[in-house]
Amino acid sequence: MEHHESQPAAEQADAAEVVDAVQLASGLAAVRKRRMCLWGVLIVYLPAMWATQKITHSFSGSMPVFFLWFVLLLWAMAYSATARCPRCKNYFHMHGMMLLYLRKCLHCQLPLNADKAPR
Length: 119
Ligand SMILES: [Zn+2]
Known about the structure:
Mean pLDDT: 88
Oligomer: single chain
Largest sheet: 2 strands, antiparallel
Bound molecules: zinc ion
Number of strands: 2
Structural class: mainly alpha
Strand content: under 5%
Distance between the termini: 40 Å
Number of domains: 1
Shape: elongated
Helix content: 55-70%
Strand order of the largest sheet: 1-2
Number of helices: 2
């Protein structure tokens, strides 16, 4: 005789959905983290340039810092642009050559906070 766990089929279906929700949440958290990297690099620009001006007192002296920041920006752009949507597996912010930082997936319209929205 086959041993039956006292677990109705409905609960097992729920469990499968929970795994999916966890994947969705971790995927969206990764997308949000990459967006934060880009915003962080953008926000750091003004205080960094201000501090550099204060220290070097010259435009040419701040050029290496600007260059460093620009490289950081390019990296953050690439890093955030290649974040993948956890639902459709396409690039979350990139559709062909179009790069748009909307609060939803450009392909399947999955909201950035889909894992936080009440069901
Ligand atoms: Zn998507």
